[in-house]
Amino acid sequence: MSFESLGLAPFLLRALAEQGYETPTPIQEQAIPLALEGRDLLAGAQTGTGKTAAFGLPLLQHLGTNPQAVDGPRRPRALVLTPTRELATQVHDSLRGYSKYLRIPSACIYGGVGMGNQFDVLRRGVDLLVACPGRLIDHIERRSVDLSGIEILVLDEADRMLDMGFLPSIKKILAKLPRQNRQTLLFSATFEESIKQLALEFMRNPEQIQVTPKNTVAENISHRVHPVDGPRKRELLLHLLAQDSREQTLVFGRTKHGCDKLAMFLDKSGIKTAAIHGNKSQGQRLRALGDFKAGRVTVLVATDIAARGIDINELPKVINYDLPMVAEDYVHRIGRTGRNGSTGQAISLVAQDEAKLLRQIVRLLDKDMDIRDVPGFEPQTPIRWGNSAPGKAELPGGDRSPRKHARRPHAEAPRHAHAGPKKAGGGQRDGAGRGAPRGGQPQGQRRGGGNTGGGRSQGGGGGRAS
Ligand code: AMP
């Protein structure tokens, strides 16, 4: 399958080729032809699947081939809502890259920065708006943005937006959009009832597509658990990181304060580390991410929400310093490793009080986990895994009362927590009905290279992050 065969216009194909995209990813294969037909989409795809191009390319093709008849101020025609500033920036940057040979004025609107520049760019007029809900509401209330001309709406990481409490804001925004002739593309890693409700309310007979079955992870990722006493986690983490101090590693912590303390500890111990979480300023977060991507720091310690949507390719290892409170977040966390078919490793440091969380994760993943002590770090308090463990999992220890070091003869001898037979996976789609195909001539197509005009970038509001 090639990008040409998906029906994309030459001005997009050229930009994709320059970015080294050769073949579409599964979500792109499924989403692009349907979105080009004007269908509403309910797409199940996580970060790392190529979802940005899956909604971005059809959106740009629509804008590029159906020029706006400007009589009066330019109003936005496409709106992409994202939960966090980082994701908004990334999506905006990606769309600007894909629209290199188009002239599509755009803005990226999120909170935590002044509104002045945003007022200016909105007043000058944009076709495309990438925004976090909170700051967009501010603009709606100040009447600095007019959403009555929106033709395409994208809800990116809809599940996360709802988790973050953005549902009332999203509904407020939706109430400002035209209901008729609007195409809505909703992307979400999971489909809780609340997402389905939202879709029912605001979408027209959406086509459902999915690239990975709900809550599954790539097969090429190995999952390892190191039991450890809580107070010794820092030492164990340092020990593991020191084994290859140049390996880029993303470490997840549960709290902002905990992440800061951990980052400081690692840094003092000689491992170049940065932390990323919601208490950091926008500048600090972007700098930390940039330093990590460029290899200036080897370890990035992050909270779940701050890390959501950050685009780091081919990360070999993710370490869960704390297990996430919600099992689904484990899936999001390790979605950062093992991308594009490369192998990945997910390591979790698990203390006694996290045994229940681990059981929930194994049950959700339906996957084997390799549980092994690290010599010198065997827990003093053996972990009570419980017999109700994950699926058919044979997690050691059962519900027996804790025994000291009595569970296995050799610390490094691996045991496996089995999760039973694998569920069938793979792409699937359902739904029916076709809208009118879109077509026409490219607007403002450029000759030659260079992204010299068109899109204007602008920072701004809304995305909260933990
Ligand atoms: P996303 O899921 O949109 O965050 O994309 C994950 C990463 O994959 C980004 O770095 C994209 O630039 C990259 N990507 C997306 N689609 C393709 C493709 N068809 N070929 C190669 N890389 C891609």
Automatic annotation (TrEMBL):
Record PROSITE patterns: DEAD_ATP_HELICASE, HELICASE_ATP_BIND_1, HELICASE_CTER, Q_MOTIF
- Which Gene Ontology BP annotations are present? response to temperature stimulus; ribosome assembly
Compositional bias per record (Gly residues), positions renumbered to this chain: 423-466
Provide this UniProt record's keywords sorted from A to Z: ATP-binding, Cytoplasm, Helicase, Hydrolase, Nucleotide-binding
The Gene Ontology terms for molecular function here are: ATP binding; hydrolase activity; nucleic acid binding; RNA helicase activity
Of the GO CC terms on this record, one is:
cytosol
Identify the EC number(s): 3.6.4.13
Region Disordered: start-end pairs = 372-466
Q: What class of enzyme is it?
A: hydrolase
The residue numbers the entry assigns to motif Q motif are 1-29
Highest taxon listed in the record's lineage: Bacteria
Name of the featured protein: DEAD-box ATP-dependent RNA helicase RhpA
